[in-house]
Structure prediction request, 143 residues.
Amino acid sequence: MATQCKLYRGDKPQVIPPGEWTLLTFEEAIRNDRSMARSLSLIVPKVSGDFVWSRNIRWAAITLPDGDARPRQFMSRFVRDPLGEPDDTGAADHPVTPGRSWETTTWQFYGKAGVPVGVQVWHDHHTDWPVEHAQFVGTTWDY
Prediction:
């Protein structure tokens, strides 16, 4: 039987400042087996094991100043112990395209009992840029 934690951010945007890694926060735990959700931003495994970690992120449509054609980039990553000694894995980067930008990523890595895992995002736009929607899931079959 799988053990799973699903954190969900509806359509209430989270504003992300440029040039700094920011921990995503969520509005609710859709599923919270073994009470693994912590502060609606982290999943904390109760037992060590191999997990399938997934994230889905939708950035808002970007607005560029007239004449500004420089490329923009957004990044995301899973991070173990983001509030202590961060250890990131499963990073992805994407060029910004007109309209909303979506990213869905799955990465398999070890979850250690009691060590929180979160999702951080980053961008290099010249001003704040909102994440409009996000989901974060940790699933294991080890217990």
About this structure: The mean pLDDT is 92. Residues 15 and 91 are 20 Å apart (CA to CA). The radius of gyration is 16 Å. The chain has no helices and twelve strands.
